[in-house]
Amino acid sequence: MGRALRMKKWRFLGLFLLAFAAFLVVWRATDAARYYTNGLLWFAGLVGPMLHGWVLEIPQPGHGSPTWVHGNEAVQAAIQFDALSVGVVPVLALLAATPGLRWRRRIGLMGLGALLGFAVDTLVVALFPLLVFYKNAFTDVIGTFLGLIAFVGAPVIIWFALTFRELQGWLPLLQSRSMQSH
Questions:
Q1: Cβ atoms of 82 and 9 closer than 8 Å
Q2: Residue 77: phi, psi to the nearest 5?
Q3: pLDDT one-digit tens code per residue, 4-23
Q4: C-alpha dihedral sign at 43, 48, 49, 51
Q5: Angstrom distance (rounded) from CA 168 to CA 1
Q6: What is the pTM of this model?
Q7: 57-90 residue pLDDT tens
Q8: Distance set, CA 43 to CA 48, 79, 98, 162 (Å)
């Protein structure tokens, strides 16, 4: 069992790295980051005013940064959108490399994973003016936490949640006691 699990681990890692590289090349070659960012700004612009009343002004490309406006106050959305948008790539690569998924389920989970990643990113962008304008220890902690989740945690958390059923077969510790005895 130990040797087979190690082999699966190295195979998974190799497939993940290959898929990550391939998706990253496609991401860059197709200018997907720009499309993702445009969609992200559009959705955050819809969600933000409902959450907090700030309005997102999106300039024409090359004419400044997106800015959240509320009355006479303004907060420039100083977010690295290219870096934020590429967070979808690890989710796709993890799902592509996960063994035991039938192709139809894999493609569906990849679509769902990308949508969930997009939702996390939308929330981060939508909450940005609250975290920057109302600066205090609480918003600093929340902003740091959201940044960590968006840039690092979300891909793995989404993958884990979507593939938990398959992961249970891999990792006996994730199985319930009744499943372990069978």
A1: no
A2: -75, 85
A3: 555 578 888 999 999 999 99
A4: positive
A5: 15
A6: 0.85
A7: 998 877 888 999 999 999 999 888 888 888 899 9
A8: 8, 16, 30, 23
Q: How far is the first Cα of the chain from the last one, in angstroms, to the nearest whole number?
A: 15
Grouping H, G, I as helix, E, B as strand and the rest as coil, residue 67 is strand
Angstrom distance (rounded) from CA 132 to CA 148? 16
Give the tokens for residue 72. Answer: 């006479």
| Residue (of 58, 57, 41, 122) closest to 87 by Cα position | 122
The whole-angstrom separation of Cα 42 and Cα 18 is: 32
Nearest to 67 by CA among 35, 44, 34: 44
Which residue type sits at 170?
Answer: W
Assigned token pair, 25: 């090349």
Q: Residue 103 is encoded by which pair of tokens? A: 């192709």
- Other Cβ atoms closer than 10 A to 143: 17
Residue 74 forms beta bridges with which residues? Answer: 69
Contact, 39 vs 45, CB < 8 A? no
